[in-house]
Amino acid sequence: MKTLLTRWIKFFFVPLSFLFVAAENDLVTFTIHNDSDYSIFYLYLSNSDSQDWGEDRLGDDVLESGGSYSTLVYPSNYDIKMIDEDDDVCVTNNVNIRNDIDWRFGNEELLDCQGYNSSSNASTSGTREAGAVKFTIRNNSDWTIYHVYMSAPEEDWGSDQLGSDVITSNGGTFSLYLQPGTYDLKLEDEDGDVCTSFGININSDLTWSYGNAEWLDCIE
How far apart, in Å, are the Cα atoms of 48 and each of 51, 75, 77, 81, 150? Predict the structure, then answer.
């Protein structure tokens, strides 16, 4: 009788253990890196389908400048709310977290999110999805850029990234979010002159700057 009972217990509990292990294996690691100069005092992470932010993830901790915070979540889309040392709030919606990812933000991203950056000569295309990096073109030349094309090597250029925007001369910028990789870049200025750069490795946030000399060298 004892042997039969032992076998029955093993039969019942082993599958339960397996289910717990399987559930844990479904979780992914989401890591936030604070590359800004501001400390984050409150951090909320909730499923995008939820109307409730839930509890502050940091508790008594602080996400200091240069620090990071990691948590385990089930694969899904999440909304993120951060409140910094000045009580400024940044909310990012629909962050796609399906795998282990590192999500970074610096001064520019944080201030953009909080609504402080509103310069007329700076524009950004799209929103930052999980795992994406920010590629910024800074035009220090005397020519305005009217068209920007980016593509993976050997692929079609696709549509103009600027749309109706332009990158103004003497300090204008344009940013877009990309998945890390290698890209080709084509720029066209107000005179129809074209500058093409191939094989740009963009594996982290990158600013691509050029002045008159670089522009003239590229279009010749």
Answer: 8, 12, 6, 12, 30
Domain spans in the chain, listed from the N-terminal domain onward: 27-114, 122-219
Q: Which CATH architecture has domain 122-219?
A: Sandwich (2.60)
In the predicted model, residues of the chain with pLDDT beneath 70 are 1-25, 115-128, 220
Give DSSP secondary structure letters for 140-199. -SSS-EEEEEEE-TTS---S-SSTT--B-TTTEEEEEEE-SEEEEEEEEETTS-EEEEEE
Give the per-residue pLDDT at 15: 53
Report percent pLDDT > 70 for the chain.
81
Q: 27-114: which CATH architecture?
A: Sandwich (2.60)
CB 183 within 8 A of CB 200: yes
